[in-house]
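retry 2 of 3: previous attempt timed out while embedding pyridoxal-5'-phosphate. Reduced batch size to 1 and resubmitted. Inputs unchanged:
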Amino acid sequence: MKKGKKEADRLGKSTTAIHSGSLEHTIYGEVSVPIFQSSTFAFSSVEDGAARFSGEKPGYIYSRLDNPTVNALEEAVATLEGACGAVATATGMAAVSSVYLSFLSRGDHVVASKCLYGSSRVILETELIRYGVESTFVDSSRLADIQKAMRPQTRMVFVETPMNPSMNLTDLAGAAAIAKKHGALLAVDNTFASPYLQRPIEFGADIVIHSLTKFINGHADVIGGLVAARDKEHYDRVKKVASLFGNTMDPHQAWLILRGLRTLPLRVQRAQENAAKLAGFLDAHPKIAWVSYPGLSHHPQHELAKRQMDGFGAMLSFGVKDGLQGAITLMNNVRLIGLAVSLGGVESLIEHPASMTHACIEPAKRREAGILDELVRLSVGCEDVEDLRNDLDQALNRIGEGQK
Ligand SMILES: *Cc1c(COP(=O)(O)O)cnc(C)c1O
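retry 2 succeeded.
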């Protein structure tokens, strides 16, 4: 853990993505981290076992608690995020729920983005409320709204940036200052940007959450999550809770995700170049009503994006002039681009949040959060951009065809 942090101070992000988490694992001089597919680890004696359990001696015990392959992935992402440590979890939602379970108690209050990943919001609204934790949902792109919602009992501010799927941003430094002033934690779901483009801890966040399923794994073949913490106290707390509740990750899953992570910088660079070109193409297309992409100069938070991100990312959302019907025609007619939820893979995917990822939020609340019925979300992959542009163009040109 500590070794990784020092390296990150010296090395670039691509070098870090390729080398972090691999240095201590050489048995035969292997270059790739091995998969330690063992549920348990033998002790040399009763005394040795007791010393490992008490923490007096380092050493592995049982893979729900710690596993070398999982630890390698945790170290790699923690290093990229500038965190003191990270806990890998079975899914992105296991990361979100580990954060809620670690830090929220009866009577506590949460201020969260209205425009959160659907399940992250619904847990607060329908599950944590059963345990006496209240939440207020705000437009976190407006710092004044976060400030206004803070109460003496507010224990956590939970935001996404860019937000899913509006692509609005939260000012991380501003949100961190408000949280700090009120003695609350700032937790940031950094899934949409990835640590290659944005490191919330640099702006004062306490906790960073990832669905590793998305950009970090990047190949649409594994589910996983992770919680990274700035301070050891918070890392220890999440580690304990995730281990107790059994939210932790399997070694085979960790190995695949670590393999994906090695090419994160290459994939994100290519995907965001494609996204910038497609955003420009859609913005000028006669069938498109609006485009939300932080890299467009008319995005209301374009300047903030330049300040807190190292690039504008590979996600965008847009509305079609023909509204919902036009959006459906477009999504039913793409050929190359997959019609599927999830994001951040090498392949481009298109989806309809109002009826898919965000259908679990009540319709009125969904619209109020800017998740319009007509909104289409596009995760741009690493294909040849001309092919993606042609695919969108032919599908857009089908709109209104039947009505002629
Ligand atoms: C996908 C996603 C999650 C949930 O992650 P899973 O790996 O599907 O459990 C949480 N937050 C964001 C922003 C996501 O995109």
